[in-house]
């Protein structure tokens, strides 16, 4: 039997700025990555998102990013591994406070945006992030780009580590994501996207922009909740995976 976790980045509104249809999209995902105030999110949004996730039976993870609201955490910054460690510990702690008020446990940690992409290639930063997660709680699951420095660092330190696949992104021959600065970085055709996910889950492969196949693992699949047709996309992906005998379940509920 095939099974996969579907995760989505949520809680990315702040103040009067509203992003995405959180309440609806939570019906179609199994794990939620909640922004912790650095790249987006604020305390009230964090609390509201935690409650919505719990109400929908969705497992919760911290989504720490770089301190860059204007750039939505997608612009690289020159940080040391120690600074990366401190940022991750700080943001996990912020979300844990809200989880404690609901008597809910955190399932995972998934870095956001530029921090995620930097850690995928920078071994020292990846190891600092993995150490931060481990030091807060060795039972947390670390989400990282499949076959990256971040997943290797998580496995090395002894964390349960989930190799992540992106439903709506294209890939390069080295297994990296196509840069968002490129016009073909995003997949907008939901049929193409679902087919890519099914191939990754069942075959452990992705067809790259260079028309070569790259082997990778897909323990958890990311969908973005801020796209123009995000809700319809999430619903279609869930139905298509289930119709292809792929069971959806939060990774923390599976005994892998």
UniProtKB/TrEMBL annotation:
UniProt entry keywords in alphabetical sequence: ATP-binding, Hydrolase, Nucleotide-binding
GO biological process, one term: carbohydrate metabolic process
Coiled coil: none
Source domain of life: Bacteria
SUPFAM superfamilies in alphabetical order: Glycoside hydrolase/deacetylase
Name of a matching Pfam family: LamB_YcsF
Any GO molecular function: ATP binding
EC number, as in UniProt: 3.5.2.9
Catalytic reaction annotation: 5-oxo-L-proline + ATP + 2 H2O = L-glutamate + ADP + phosphate + H(+)
Xref: InterPro entries: Glyco_hydro/deAcase_b/a-brl, LamB/YcsF/PxpA-like
Family statement: Belongs to the LamB/PxpA family.
PANTHER family: 5-OXOPROLINASE SUBUNIT A, UNCHARACTERIZED PROTEIN YBGL-RELATED
SUBUNIT field: Forms a complex composed of PxpA, PxpB and PxpC.
Free-text function comment from the UniProt entry: Catalyzes the cleavage of 5-oxoproline to form L-glutamate coupled to the hydrolysis of ATP to ADP and inorganic phosphate.
Name this polypeptide is given: 5-oxoprolinase subunit A
Organism: Lysinibacillus odysseyi 34hs-1 = NBRC 100172
